[in-house]
Amino acid sequence: MITFEAKIKDRIVRMYAGYPMKNAAGAIFKTLTQICNETDADIFNDKFVMNFGWSFFFMSERKDNNGNVFYVVQSSDYKKNPMRDKTDDVTLSLLAQNMQVETVRVANVQPESATFKDTILVLKEAMNAPDVYMNRNEAAKNGDSGWYFGLLNDPNEENHSSDDYIKLPSCELFKFRSEALRVMEMPVGTLAVFHDNVMTALVDGNDQPLKFTTEEERKAAAEKSRAEFEAEVAAAKARAEQAKEEKKDEENV
Q: Do 91 and 63 fall within a single domain?
Protein backbone atom coordinates (compact mmCIF):
# COMPACT_ATOMS: atom_id res chain seq x y z
CA MET A 1 0.00 0.00 0.00
CA ILE A 2 1.32 3.43 -0.98
CA THR A 3 0.98 6.39 1.39
CA PHE A 4 0.35 9.86 0.01
CA GLU A 5 0.78 12.70 2.49
CA ALA A 6 0.08 16.44 2.58
CA LYS A 7 -0.03 19.18 5.18
CA ILE A 8 -3.32 21.08 5.28
CA LYS A 9 -3.79 23.85 7.83
CA ASP A 10 -0.73 22.54 9.71
CA ARG A 11 -2.30 19.09 9.99
CA ILE A 12 -0.94 15.91 8.48
CA VAL A 13 -3.36 14.27 6.06
CA ARG A 14 -2.71 10.85 4.53
CA MET A 15 -4.22 8.76 1.79
CA TYR A 16 -3.60 5.05 1.12
CA ALA A 17 -3.84 3.34 -2.27
CA GLY A 18 -2.51 0.26 -4.00
CA TYR A 19 -1.12 2.09 -7.02
CA PRO A 20 1.10 5.18 -7.43
CA MET A 21 -1.75 7.47 -8.49
CA LYS A 22 0.04 10.64 -7.49
CA ASN A 23 -1.99 12.99 -9.72
CA ALA A 24 -5.34 11.66 -8.52
CA ALA A 25 -4.28 11.89 -4.86
CA GLY A 26 -2.88 15.36 -5.48
CA ALA A 27 -6.21 16.52 -6.89
CA ILE A 28 -7.96 15.38 -3.71
CA PHE A 29 -5.43 17.15 -1.48
CA LYS A 30 -5.68 20.32 -3.59
CA THR A 31 -9.47 20.40 -3.29
CA LEU A 32 -9.35 19.80 0.48
CA THR A 33 -6.86 22.67 0.79
CA GLN A 34 -9.12 24.96 -1.24
CA ILE A 35 -12.10 24.10 0.95
CA CYS A 36 -10.09 25.02 4.03
CA ASN A 37 -8.71 28.24 2.55
CA GLU A 38 -11.86 29.53 0.86
CA THR A 39 -14.64 28.52 3.27
CA ASP A 40 -15.24 28.20 6.99
CA ALA A 41 -15.85 24.45 6.66
CA ASP A 42 -14.22 22.21 9.24
CA ILE A 43 -12.98 19.18 7.33
CA PHE A 44 -11.17 17.59 10.27
CA ASN A 45 -14.03 15.59 11.74
CA ASP A 46 -15.95 12.41 11.00
CA LYS A 47 -19.01 14.36 9.79
CA PHE A 48 -17.16 15.79 6.79
CA VAL A 49 -18.21 14.50 3.34
CA MET A 50 -16.76 15.64 0.02
CA ASN A 51 -18.30 14.69 -3.32
CA PHE A 52 -15.38 14.76 -5.77
CA GLY A 53 -16.39 13.68 -9.24
CA TRP A 54 -17.94 10.23 -9.12
CA SER A 55 -16.78 9.41 -5.56
CA PHE A 56 -17.36 10.52 -1.99
CA PHE A 57 -14.52 11.13 0.46
CA PHE A 58 -14.43 11.40 4.25
CA MET A 59 -11.96 12.31 7.00
CA SER A 60 -10.95 10.12 9.94
CA GLU A 61 -8.76 11.18 12.87
CA ARG A 62 -5.97 8.80 13.92
CA LYS A 63 -2.92 8.70 16.20
CA ASP A 64 0.47 7.20 15.45
CA ASN A 65 2.50 5.10 17.90
CA ASN A 66 3.85 8.27 19.52
CA GLY A 67 0.41 9.75 20.08
CA ASN A 68 0.71 12.30 17.27
CA VAL A 69 -2.59 13.10 15.54
CA PHE A 70 -2.98 12.73 11.79
CA TYR A 71 -5.96 12.38 9.46
CA VAL A 72 -6.82 9.72 6.90
CA VAL A 73 -8.87 10.41 3.78
CA GLN A 74 -11.37 7.58 3.36
CA SER A 75 -13.74 6.72 0.53
CA SER A 76 -16.89 4.66 0.12
CA ASP A 77 -16.16 0.94 0.29
CA TYR A 78 -17.25 -0.60 -3.03
CA LYS A 79 -16.27 -4.09 -1.83
CA LYS A 80 -18.89 -3.94 0.93
CA ASN A 81 -21.87 -1.58 1.07
CA PRO A 82 -20.74 1.76 -0.40
CA MET A 83 -23.93 3.45 0.77
CA ARG A 84 -22.86 2.80 4.36
CA ASP A 85 -19.30 1.49 4.66
CA LYS A 86 -16.04 3.45 4.40
CA THR A 87 -12.50 2.27 3.75
CA ASP A 88 -8.96 3.60 4.21
CA ASP A 89 -8.03 2.03 0.86
CA VAL A 90 -9.04 4.65 -1.73
CA THR A 91 -7.61 2.68 -4.67
CA LEU A 92 -10.92 2.05 -6.44
CA SER A 93 -12.10 5.64 -6.03
CA LEU A 94 -8.83 7.00 -7.41
CA LEU A 95 -8.87 4.50 -10.27
CA ALA A 96 -12.40 5.55 -11.23
CA GLN A 97 -11.34 9.20 -11.00
CA ASN A 98 -8.33 8.61 -13.27
CA MET A 99 -10.39 6.66 -15.80
CA GLN A 100 -13.15 9.26 -16.03
CA VAL A 101 -10.87 12.30 -16.15
CA GLU A 102 -8.77 10.68 -18.87
CA THR A 103 -11.78 9.77 -21.02
CA VAL A 104 -13.27 13.26 -20.85
CA ARG A 105 -9.89 14.92 -21.53
CA VAL A 106 -8.93 12.74 -24.48
CA ALA A 107 -12.42 12.99 -26.03
CA ASN A 108 -12.24 16.79 -25.52
CA VAL A 109 -15.80 17.15 -24.21
CA GLN A 110 -17.49 18.85 -21.28
CA PRO A 111 -18.12 16.36 -18.47
CA GLU A 112 -21.59 15.79 -17.09
CA SER A 113 -21.56 14.63 -13.49
CA ALA A 114 -22.62 11.28 -12.12
CA THR A 115 -21.89 9.64 -8.79
CA PHE A 116 -21.46 6.06 -7.65
CA LYS A 117 -24.99 6.22 -6.19
CA ASP A 118 -26.67 7.24 -9.44
CA THR A 119 -28.47 4.37 -11.10
CA ILE A 120 -27.99 2.82 -14.53
CA LEU A 121 -30.61 0.80 -16.37
CA VAL A 122 -29.15 -2.63 -17.16
CA LEU A 123 -30.41 -5.34 -19.47
CA LYS A 124 -29.84 -8.44 -17.34
CA GLU A 125 -28.86 -10.52 -20.37
CA ALA A 126 -26.04 -8.08 -21.12
CA MET A 127 -24.32 -8.36 -17.76
CA ASN A 128 -22.30 -11.44 -18.78
CA ALA A 129 -22.31 -10.94 -22.54
CA PRO A 130 -19.02 -10.24 -24.36
CA ASP A 131 -20.30 -7.44 -26.62
CA VAL A 132 -22.23 -4.64 -24.95
CA TYR A 133 -22.73 -0.89 -25.12
CA MET A 134 -23.40 2.06 -22.83
CA ASN A 135 -25.64 4.89 -24.02
CA ARG A 136 -26.42 8.05 -22.03
CA ASN A 137 -29.84 9.67 -22.22
CA GLU A 138 -31.28 12.57 -20.27
CA ALA A 139 -31.73 11.59 -16.62
CA ALA A 140 -35.35 10.87 -15.78
CA LYS A 141 -35.01 12.09 -12.18
CA ASN A 142 -32.48 12.87 -9.47
CA GLY A 143 -30.39 9.84 -8.67
CA ASP A 144 -30.64 8.55 -12.24
CA SER A 145 -27.43 8.80 -14.31
CA GLY A 146 -29.24 8.45 -17.64
CA TRP A 147 -26.96 5.57 -18.64
CA TYR A 148 -28.27 2.39 -20.25
CA PHE A 149 -26.19 -0.83 -20.38
CA GLY A 150 -27.36 -3.06 -23.19
CA LEU A 151 -26.54 -5.94 -25.48
CA LEU A 152 -24.84 -5.02 -28.76
CA ASN A 153 -26.84 -6.16 -31.82
CA ASP A 154 -29.60 -7.42 -29.54
CA PRO A 155 -31.95 -9.59 -31.67
CA ASN A 156 -34.77 -9.20 -29.13
CA GLU A 157 -34.37 -5.48 -28.53
CA GLU A 158 -38.01 -4.70 -29.37
CA ASN A 159 -39.45 -7.60 -27.39
CA HIS A 160 -38.00 -7.23 -23.89
CA SER A 161 -40.35 -6.93 -20.94
CA SER A 162 -39.76 -4.85 -17.81
CA ASP A 163 -38.60 -8.02 -16.03
CA ASP A 164 -35.60 -8.17 -18.35
CA TYR A 165 -34.13 -5.00 -16.83
CA ILE A 166 -32.71 -3.98 -13.50
CA LYS A 167 -31.68 -0.63 -12.05
CA LEU A 168 -28.34 -0.66 -10.25
CA PRO A 169 -26.15 2.00 -8.65
CA SER A 170 -23.31 2.68 -11.07
CA CYS A 171 -20.69 1.35 -8.63
CA GLU A 172 -22.05 -2.15 -9.35
CA LEU A 173 -20.18 -1.94 -12.66
CA PHE A 174 -17.06 -2.81 -10.68
CA LYS A 175 -18.50 -6.32 -10.38
CA PHE A 176 -19.31 -7.11 -14.00
CA ARG A 177 -17.82 -4.48 -16.38
CA SER A 178 -15.41 -2.15 -14.61
CA GLU A 179 -14.18 -0.60 -17.87
CA ALA A 180 -17.64 0.89 -18.38
CA LEU A 181 -16.99 3.18 -15.40
CA ARG A 182 -14.60 5.01 -17.72
CA VAL A 183 -17.47 6.78 -19.49
CA MET A 184 -19.67 7.68 -16.52
CA GLU A 185 -19.02 11.44 -16.79
CA MET A 186 -19.31 11.64 -20.57
CA PRO A 187 -22.16 13.88 -21.79
CA VAL A 188 -25.69 12.93 -22.79
CA GLY A 189 -25.75 11.31 -26.23
CA THR A 190 -22.47 9.42 -25.75
CA LEU A 191 -22.38 5.80 -26.84
CA ALA A 192 -19.52 3.48 -25.90
CA VAL A 193 -19.00 -0.09 -27.15
CA PHE A 194 -17.15 -2.78 -25.18
CA HIS A 195 -15.81 -6.21 -26.04
CA ASP A 196 -15.36 -8.07 -22.77
CA ASN A 197 -13.73 -5.45 -20.54
CA VAL A 198 -12.15 -3.36 -23.31
CA MET A 199 -13.70 -0.24 -24.84
CA THR A 200 -13.62 -0.55 -28.64
CA ALA A 201 -15.60 2.49 -29.81
CA LEU A 202 -16.78 5.87 -28.50
CA VAL A 203 -19.12 8.26 -30.34
CA ASP A 204 -21.03 11.43 -29.48
CA GLY A 205 -24.73 12.20 -29.85
CA ASN A 206 -24.26 12.96 -33.54
CA ASP A 207 -22.59 9.58 -34.19
CA GLN A 208 -19.24 11.30 -34.58
CA PRO A 209 -16.26 9.25 -33.34
CA LEU A 210 -14.49 10.50 -30.23
CA LYS A 211 -10.87 9.90 -29.33
CA PHE A 212 -10.04 7.53 -26.48
CA THR A 213 -6.88 5.83 -25.27
CA THR A 214 -6.37 2.18 -26.13
CA GLU A 215 -5.62 -0.50 -23.57
CA GLU A 216 -2.02 -0.67 -24.85
CA GLU A 217 -1.58 3.09 -24.44
CA ARG A 218 -2.95 2.96 -20.91
CA LYS A 219 -0.64 0.10 -19.95
CA ALA A 220 2.37 1.99 -21.28
CA ALA A 221 1.32 5.13 -19.39
CA ALA A 222 0.82 3.11 -16.19
CA GLU A 223 4.27 1.53 -16.49
CA LYS A 224 5.83 4.96 -17.06
CA SER A 225 3.99 6.41 -14.07
CA ARG A 226 5.10 3.56 -11.81
CA ALA A 227 8.71 3.88 -12.98
CA GLU A 228 8.68 7.63 -12.30
CA PHE A 229 7.13 7.08 -8.86
CA GLU A 230 9.67 4.41 -7.95
CA ALA A 231 12.48 6.73 -9.06
CA GLU A 232 11.09 9.49 -6.82
CA VAL A 233 10.89 7.08 -3.87
CA ALA A 234 14.45 5.87 -4.46
CA ALA A 235 15.72 9.46 -4.66
CA ALA A 236 13.91 10.37 -1.45
CA LYS A 237 15.43 7.37 0.35
CA ALA A 238 18.89 8.30 -0.95
CA ARG A 239 18.47 11.86 0.35
CA ALA A 240 17.33 10.55 3.72
CA GLU A 241 20.34 8.21 3.95
CA GLN A 242 22.66 11.02 2.98
CA ALA A 243 21.18 13.30 5.62
CA LYS A 244 21.59 10.54 8.19
CA GLU A 245 25.25 10.06 7.27
CA GLU A 246 25.90 13.80 7.38
CA LYS A 247 24.35 13.98 10.83
CA LYS A 248 26.60 11.13 12.04
CA ASP A 249 29.65 12.92 10.65
CA GLU A 250 28.67 16.11 12.50
CA GLU A 251 28.22 14.20 15.75
CA ASN A 252 31.62 12.59 15.35
CA VAL A 253 33.44 15.90 14.84
A: yes
